[in-house]
């Protein structure tokens, strides 16, 4: 297959109708590693919003069961992209997501912000570090894909375009990012989990690498020290070099799914979608 196979295939499709297929080609064929990394950073950004970080800290999932929470989040977000929104697995996954969210009194604007990070952060990551940026058609398809996800989650006032998502995210972060101890605990728990994905001797370097990819507002919101300028240059430069090298390789034929990633470690014997996530009891908890 030619190197630009998926770009040409995606631009042949209609982003208003075929957005699931286009998103599948982007996320699970051409850019699986980049999309996983960028979505991880997207979720990480949301912890800097005190309302989101505070609620996640209250659940204590990042303190006592960070690996399972990481796995469950990834596994529940995958089925719509792989199978489409009407597939039984996708419907079961979205039902589980809604059941968990409805256990808490989460304002619509926080949900829209999280959705916006899923649209904006991967696009910006690929602009900076991918082997190529997304095409205009792929950007529209990504926005439409997450608009559909938001509709299935019952969200209101969902932005209609990528630019509207980007404007919302940037304005929301400028207004809401702030340091709080609960958000810092959630961020620390996430970083601690991520470091376990690498051999012990290199974990300190990975931690510096991770902070080198964070922008200043995010570092300030978590109270993290700014890494040395040389570390920032090496970290970001290394990702750019990786992207350029990937241009030399042929296109991937098959899907590379989340469940096949070695970081997913909670279910060596398989899992049922209906049993993923948490099961809070009682009425929605007021915050």
Describe the structure.
The chain is mostly helical. It has a domain at 5-196. It has 14 helices and no strands. The protein has helices at residues 5-12, 19-30, 32-46, 50-59, 61-64, 66-83, 88-101, 108-129, 136-152, 162-176, 181-195, 203-212, 216-222, 229-246. It is globular and about 50 Å long. 31% of the residues are buried.
User: What oligomeric state do these chains adopt?
Assistant: single chain
Distance between the termini: 52 Å
What kind of sheet is the major sheet?
none
What is the averaged pLDDT score?
95
- Radius of gyration, CA atoms, in whole angstroms: 18 Å
What is the general shape? globular
Report the total helices: 14
Find the count of extended strands (DSSP E, 2+ residues): 0
Binned, the helix content reads 55-70%
Low-confidence stretches: none
Topology order in helix (H) and strand (E) letters: HHHHHHHHHHHHHH
**Strand pairing plus helix content: what structural class?**
mainly alpha
- Portion of residues in beta strands equals under 5%
Question: Which key phrases capture this entry?
Answer:
single chain; 287 residues; mainly alpha; 14 helices; 0% strand; globular
Topology of this protein?
Layout: H1 5-12, H2 19-30, H3 32-46, H4 50-59, H5 61-64, H6 66-83, H7 88-101, H8 108-129, H9 136-152, H10 162-176, H11 181-195, H12 203-212, H13 216-222, H14 229-246
Helix pairs in contact: 2-3, 2-6, 2-9, 3-8, 4-11, 6-7, 8-9, 8-10, 12-14
């Amino acid at each position: 297959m030619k190197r630009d196979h998926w770009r040409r295939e995606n631009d042949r499709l209609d982003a208003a109708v075929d957005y699931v297929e286009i998103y599948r080609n982007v996320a699970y064929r051409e850019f699986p590693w980049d999309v996983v990394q960028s979505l991880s950073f997207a979720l990480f950004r949301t912890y800097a919003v005190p309302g989101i970080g505070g609620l996640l800290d209250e659940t204590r999932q990042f303190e006592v069961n960070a690996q399972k929470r990481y796995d469950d989040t990834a596994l529940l977000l995958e089925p719509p992209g792989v199978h489409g929104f009407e597939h039984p697995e996708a419907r079961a996954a979205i039902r589980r997501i809604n059941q968990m969210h409805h256990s808490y009194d989460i304002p619509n604007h926080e949900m829209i912000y999280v959705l916006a990070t899923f649209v904006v952060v991967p696009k910006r990551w690929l602009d900076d570090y991918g082997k190529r940026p997304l095409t205009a058609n792929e950007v529209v398809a990504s926005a439409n894909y997450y608009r559909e996800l938001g509709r299935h989650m019952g969200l209101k006032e969902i932005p209609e375009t990528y630019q509207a998502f980007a404007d919302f995210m940037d304005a929301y972060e400028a207004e809401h990012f702030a340091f709080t101890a609960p958000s810092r605990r959630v961020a620390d728990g996430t970083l601690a989990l991520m470091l376990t994905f690498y051999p012990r001797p290199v974990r300190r370097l990975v931690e510096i690498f991770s902070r080198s990819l964070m922008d200043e507002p995010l570092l300030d919101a978590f109270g993290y020290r700014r890494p040395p300028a040389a570390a920032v240059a090496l970290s970001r430069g290394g990702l750019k070099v990786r992207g350029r090298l990937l241009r030399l390789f042929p296109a991937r034929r098959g899907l590379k799914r989340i469940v096949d990633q070695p970081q997913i470690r909670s279910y060596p014997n398989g899992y049922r979608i209906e049993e993923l996530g948490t099961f809070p009891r009682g009425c929605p908890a007021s915050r």
